């Protein structure tokens, strides 16, 4: 019997699965199979699994969750089985309504924390279930060829870009939602007001040499932009620490959480996100002289009651800085682009700061960071609690893409002036 190879990044079973027909599910499947990815490293994979199970919370969902092939199982199962397990977990996420969380978790894993296979696994699928006849030498050559091509692509962009998108997702895990003390209608209003709607669409994560770190749940549940310790976080005095106690209007939405429960939440959601951010920056610095972190946000045209800056009118764009990590020439490049497009811009107002991993903060000048905040009136509006794109959405997205490209070009120029060259990557 002759066999026919299925040229696809996903398995034949996943391609035909009715729950994986959506664009988002398909895109996630393709992402998890691209660039020789098989599965995250064991510790990271187990962490993703525990966060997915917690996000649903029901015993039936937890029992049906496909177990990760880690520990002893990793020795007994092939790469194809492991990638198949990822597909089953995505099916599970669709089935229980947490695909958004799964999407953010898998995409946020730094490249260095993915286990890579010898070939694009599902290109080995065959009709009829026969095993492809690839020998070890052929598979090794194929792997090296793919990795060399990826290294060449990365080298065309000397500035690795990390898009930090902390406030765009809309999900709240079931275990955390039960802790809010306001009725559903009021909670929905708080959620709609505080979410940076469509930020993960405005900022294009499909650019070469780009890693997007999207926090998978809403900021009202856990805010990764706050300091972990309330003593270090100025907004904690207003009830807006890492675990929000008040909403955008100043009213109480959740009672204080302390002790073991606080530790449990931080260990499940906050710390893994920051570990991945640090790993992404370290990974970037391992292959380039600098890494650029763009902290991606949006803000309302009318100040919230809890905002420190109540000045109106508000600008179209707010640029945030982070001390030694945001040189003057980088700010100048951003403001010049905004004004050239006819958009008003202010620096560190109405919001200030930009994300830098604690490991590098105020220590490592190779880490560049700048915050971009877009006024929501430029691209969307709230109809009740529903966020709706305006007709100007595409124009706003083009503006953001141009701004990001301008910042990368500015870093590349400064690298050239200072003779900072991309390090050559060794063949694996």
Structure commentary:
There is one protein chain. With 428 residues, the chain is of the alpha/beta class. It has two domains: 12-126 and 135-154, no CATH class; 161-417, Zn-dependent exopeptidases (Aminopeptidase, 3-Layer(aba) Sandwich). The protein is built from 14 helices and ten strands. It has helices spanning 12-16, 23-33, 42-56, 59-63, 73-76, 79-95, 99-107, 136-155, 174-177, 184-194, 199-202, 259-285, 328-340, 393-417; strands spanning 37-40, 114-116, 161-165, 210-214, 291-299, 317-320, 345-347, 367-375, 380-383, 386-389. The strands form three sheets. The protein has a six-stranded mixed sheet, with helices on both faces. A two-stranded antiparallel ribbon has the order 1-2. Strand 9 and strand 10 form a beta hairpin. The longest helix has 27 residues, at 259-285. The radius of gyration is 22 Å and the shape is globular. It starts with 11 loop residues before the first helix and ends in an 11-residue tail after the last helix.
Summarize the structure.
This protein is of the alpha/beta class.
Fill in the keyword field for this structure.
428 residues, alpha/beta, Aminopeptidase, 2 domains, six-stranded mixed beta sheet, two-stranded antiparallel ribbon, 10 strands, 40% helix, disordered N terminus, disordered C terminus
């Amino acid at each position: 019997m002759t066999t026919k190879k299925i040229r696809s990044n996903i398995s034949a079973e996943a391609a035909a699965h009715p729950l994986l027909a959506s664009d988002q599910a398909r895109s996630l499947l393709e992402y998890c199979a691209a660039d020789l990815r098989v599965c995250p490293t064991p510790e990271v994979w187990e962490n993703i699994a525990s966060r997915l199970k917690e996000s649903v919370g029901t015993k039936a969902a937890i029992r049906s969750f496909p177990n990760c092939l880690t520990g002893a199982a990793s020795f007994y199962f092939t790469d194809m089985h492991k990638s198949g397990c990822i597909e089953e977990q995505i099916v599970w996420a669709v089935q229980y309504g947490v695909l958004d969380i799964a999407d953010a978790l898998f995409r946020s894993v730094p490249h260095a924390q993915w286990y890579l296979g010898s070939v694009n696994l599902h290109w080995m699928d065959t009709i009829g279930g026969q095993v492809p006849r690839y020998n070890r030498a052929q598979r090794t050559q194929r792997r090296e060829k793919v990795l060399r091509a990826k290294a060449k692509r990365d080298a065309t962009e000397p500035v690795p870009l990390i898009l930090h998108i902390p406030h765009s997702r809309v999900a709240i895990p079931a275990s955390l939602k039960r802790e809010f003390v306001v009725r559903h209608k009021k909670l929905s209003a708080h959620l709609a007001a505080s979410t940076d709607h469509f930020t993960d669409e405005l900022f294009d994560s499909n650019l070469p040499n780009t890693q997007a770190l999207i926090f998978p749940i809403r900021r009202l549940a856990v805010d990764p932009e706050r300091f972990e310790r309330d003593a270090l976080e100025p907004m904690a005095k207003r009830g807006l620490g890492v675990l929000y106690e008040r909403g955008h209007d100043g009213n109480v939405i959740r009672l204080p959480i302390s002790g073991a429960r606080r530790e449990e939440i931080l260990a499940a959601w906050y710390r893994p996100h920051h570990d991945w951010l640090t790993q992404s920056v370290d990974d970037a610095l391992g292959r380039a002289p600098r890494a650029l972190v763009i902290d991606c946000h949006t803000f309302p045209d009318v100040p919230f009651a809890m905002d420190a800056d109540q000045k109106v009118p508000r600008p179209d764009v707010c640029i945030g800085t982070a001390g030694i990590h945001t040189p003057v020439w980088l700010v100048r490049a951003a403001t010049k682009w905004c004004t050239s497009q006819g958009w008003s811009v202010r620096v560190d107002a109405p919001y200030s700061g930009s994300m830098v991993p604690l490991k590098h903060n105020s220590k490592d000048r190779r880490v560049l960071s700048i915050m971009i905040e877009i006024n929501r009136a430029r691209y969307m509006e709230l109809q009740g609690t529903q966020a709706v794109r305006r007709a100007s959405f595409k124009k706003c997205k083009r503006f953001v893409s141009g701004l990001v490209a301008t910042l990368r070009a500015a870093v590349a120029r400064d690298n050239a002036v200072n003779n900072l060259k991309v390090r050559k990557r060794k063949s694996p």
